[in-house]
């Protein structure tokens, strides 16, 4: 067979940039992550890649970008089969990927990370060149980050921006973005999409992985859908709808009678009999005059005071990097504050270590789940009892852990939270991004806490998993728990909060009921603009 026979259009331009032929990936533990997938990536095209958590999106794109070898099948270009020994070879071929889990050197600044990623004939890009390049790109993409701070000190959202800028700085022909928008603000998403469109018009190919159907429909030309590793749809974006896509993702049988595919708050459980929380005196969490320094030595949280009462969700919205991370770190013992007090059920917590704080009845869903939430080399069972080892039922004589009980507990968690894994003994790193998140949320919520500090609890989750977690938070609130919700997803904060604050540069711009805030005012507060008609607390 002549491989070039059907690869060019009559005009001579190659029809596709690369093509996956019969790609199958079986991981060493026997998991079939991708099954016999044929997919063409065309120049001048934005391809959306959809699928539930664990469907195989990351695996397939890692194979396309040369990071993982397929078990079966091959990747071909019009010039013949392509095989990459490393991501660098893929980059040299013109394929770059922005990862769901970042691939940055933590102790290096953004500029240093970019310089490092460019190999020129005689060494790396000079730092000044990298900075110049980054400044141009920041203007072009609308993504702004501090260039001179080690990236490990940046908020997760900022790190993601650095990662995107790093790959954009390489002039690639195929750009793969694995859930880039979950950490971006609506305005940044718009600007990033405008840039992607410009790249496309310049002849590039783009693969965009996201769980947001609206986004996918707004920007892509074509949408491929994976279900349990199989390609179940390859459709023109203009010919489809959110309903059709949801059906493809979960399968006809599963969606029957359940059309909840976007964040529809009316569909979350509302308990009519729920008692209004009594907001008197200090709350379950009481914070007064809290001031916290960030890593760049500047004050990140400024003299903040608030209460979270039993039976309410107190939401904090705002652009990431405005002190939310430092606030949560101070409240969970991960950062020593400059001054102020914070109590949980009357007990001072500032200055205590995380374990002491957790013992007071705190559940913590950390934003930085790969650093703080899970130990990736450990098994599910080991991860499921992090911070809960004291549970009596898991301890036998002489303080030995009762592993049989722990495994049972993990199986129950897997079932309840829909965690896809081979079993309690699987290493956490073998889980897909969304399944890792479900494991943390499941572990934390099963602690039966008095207060839940949830940072970005649904980031990276597919629509049904996210809805499940949201419903669970509401249920726990109705059961009298106090919940502090920090989320960059404004719709989520609006939908779940009884009271909400908008954080800007370490302070609350406003505190009030979500119903009393209009979108325009919220946008202004998020940008630090105080409107004339300021809401009362
Ligand atoms: N290193 C690994 N070892 C074993 N199994 C793995 C490994 N990496 C991924 N898997 C499994 O392969 C399947 C597909 O995972 P993948 O990460 O590609 O999913 P995904 O579609 O990107 O999901 P998400 O939306 O949650 O990120 C999952 O069942 C996952 O548990
Ligand atoms: Mg993934």
The average pLDDT score comes to 84
Q: In one word, what is the shape?
A: globular
CATH-level-2 architecture of the domain at 18-255? 3-Layer(aba) Sandwich
In terms of DSSP E residues, the strand content is 15-25%
**Lateral strand order in the biggest sheet:** 6-9-10-3-11-12
Q: What is this structure's SSE topology?
A:
Blueprint: E1 18-26, E2 32-41, E3 45-50, H1 57-64, E4 72-77, E5 80-82, H2 87-93, E6 95-98, H3 110-117, E7 119-120, E8 123-124, H4 127-141, H5 156-169, E9 174-178, H6 186-201, E10 205-209, H7 213-219, E11 222-227, E12 230-236, H8 242-250, H9 252-255, E13 285-293, E14 299-308, E15 313-317, H10 324-331, E16 339-344, E17 347-348, H11 354-359, E18 362-365, H12 369-373, H13 380-384, H14 403-417, H15 433-445, E19 451-455, H16 463-478, E20 482-486, H17 490-496, E21 499-504, E22 507-512, H18 519-526
Please characterize this protein's 3D structure.
The chain has 537 residues and is an alpha/beta fold. It has a domain of 238 residues: Rossmann fold (3-Layer(aba) Sandwich). It has 18 helices and 22 strands. The strands form 5 sheets. Strands 6-9-10-3-11-12 form a 6-stranded mixed beta sheet, sandwiched between helices. The chain has a 6-stranded mixed beta sheet with strand order 18-19-20-15-21-22, with helices on both faces. Helix 3 packs across helix 4 and helix 14 crosses helix 15.
